[in-house]
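Hi P.,

Sorry for the delay on this. The queue was packed all week, but I finally got your sequence through. Input first:
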Amino acid sequence: MAEFFLAGIKQADAVRYQCQYQGLEPAGTSEKSHPVELLVTDHSYPPPGISLIPREYVKMETNITIQCWNQQYGGTIFLQKDGHSAPIQHQEPDGGGTATFTLFGVTPADSGTYRCSYRVGGSYLLSSPLGDNVTLEVIPRPAPPGDNGGPSRNLGAAVVGRWVAAIVIIIILTVSFLLVAQRRRMQTDERPGGEGVKWL
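Then the structure:
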């Protein structure tokens, strides 16, 4: 395996790279490998601005708009969410250099921190730094009245109820047995000669 190092990355290094090798037996040159792209961040470009509409805290199923602008540097604007290695959306800016991204019917899964960057016009692999961030928090919908945990909790309550009922039945049967035994003993004691044999 061959390793190639690029030191002091420059704008000119933001291109696609491919490899190929020359064989000895049989002699010849291989086909080129699949290309890889080197995305270079150039800090000489200012980071884009960002805003979130209508607000950072919203209820579920609200439509959210995130706007990013790059001061008319052209290129493509990318929307990125923290925790994702790749941009989640991209868009060409309008005439004023602004891109508008819409998140429809948001859910708690859309909560997180969002930032933007842009690829400089004429060089798709040359990127600006990430800009400031906005944080979106989607408030989960409260559980409907009477829903105290769903099917699993209802099943647990049913099992507990059956155990309680079984214990009550056992207690009743035990008390009934003891009462019957005591009644029979009393009846035996009330019979003539029931006092037993007396020793002289």
